[in-house]
Amino acid sequence: MSSTVLMPKPPRKIEMKTKEEISLMRQAGAVVAGALTMLRKSLSAGMSTKDIDVLAMDYLSKNNAQPAFLGYRGFPASICVSINSEVVHGIPSPKRKIVDGDIVSLDFGCVVGGFYADAAVTVPVGNVSGEALRLIQVTEESLGRGIAAALVGNRLGDIGFAVQSYCEQAGFSVVRDFVGHGIGRALHEEPQVPNYGKKGTGTRLVSGMVLAIEPMVNAGGYEVKVLDDQWTAVTKDGRLSAHFEHTVALTEKGPEILTQ
Ligand code: MG
C-alpha cells in the first residue's frame, strides 16, 4: 500500500532494522510473495474483487500471518484491488467483477512477529491491449531499476531518478501523489520513497534501512484523483495505470528483495 504525500505527518526518524528484525520481515515477505503468486494464478474473468480478498485472507490464516491493510486508517479489506484506470487502493467488492481484457493491480501486505511486508503486482487477465502489456512490462522493469539503485551510499533521489527516467523514456508518467515508504514495525515509516527525483539528492541510503519501493505508472498524465469512497485513486484522464512493489532491505552486499 502506498503512502499519501499529501497526508501531513509529524517528522519521524528512520528506523534501522537489525539482522533479526530483517529475518522476521523476510518471513512476512515470503507470505506476501506466496499469496501474490497464488492470486496471480487464480485471477480470472468473472471473479469479483471480493473473491480475491477472501482468497487472500484464507492464505494469511493458513500461514499464521495477520493482514496489514485490514483496518489500516479504516481500510475495510486485506488487499487493494485496482483495475485499469484505478491506480491504487481499490476496495474489494462483491459487485465488482473482473472482465476479460482488464489489468488488475493486487497490492498486499501482512504482519509476522510484529513486522510488516508489502508488495504489489499488476496482472493482465485474458486478451489485453498492446499498450496495457507494455505499461505492465515497463512498470515492472522500472521497479527493478529502482531496486538496483537502492545501494548503500547512494541517495533516495537515485531510486526515484532510476524509476522516473526509465518510465518517461517509454512515454509513460509516474504518479506524484502517492509514494513508497520505509517499512518495519509499521506499514508506513520514514522515509517517503518517491518514484521521481534527481540523482545524488535526498537522504543517504545506509545498511539496515528497509524500503517499500513501488512505482505507480500511468499510460497518460501523472495526475490522479481519489473517488468518493475516500480510497480508490484513479487517473484523471481515465487512461490505464500499473503498479509493482517490493519490500527491499538495504545491505552492504546490495539490496535484498524480501517479497520475492
Ligand atoms: Mg507500499
Portion of residues within helices: 25-40%
Q: State the separation between the terminal residues, measured CA to CA.
A: 17 Å
Instruction: Please indicate the percent range of residues in DSSP E strands (runs of 2 or more).
Output: 25-35%
**Ligand roster:** magnesium ion
Give me the number of helical elements: 4
Please give the CATH class. Alpha Beta
Question: What is the count of structural domains?
Answer: 1
- The CATH topology is Creatine Amidinohydrolase
Number of strands: 16
Q: Radius of gyration over alpha carbons?
A: 17 Å
Which spans have pLDDT < 50 for at least 5 consecutive residues? none
What does this protein structure show overall?
The chain is of the alpha+beta class. The protein has a single domain, classed as Creatinase/methionine aminopeptidase superfamily (Creatine Amidinohydrolase). Helices cover 27% and strands 27% of the residues. The chain contains 4 helices and 16 strands. The chain has helices spanning 19-42, 49-62, 130-148, 156-169, and strands spanning 3-4, 66-67, 79-83, 86-88, 103-112, 115-124, 173-174, 178-182, 189-193, 210-213, 216-218, 224-226, 233-235, 241-243, 246-251, 254-257. Strands 1, 8, 9, 10, 15 and 16 form a 6-stranded antiparallel β-sheet that branches. The longest helix is centred in the N-terminal third of the chain and has 24 residues, at 19-42. The chain is globular. Magnesium ion binds next to loops.
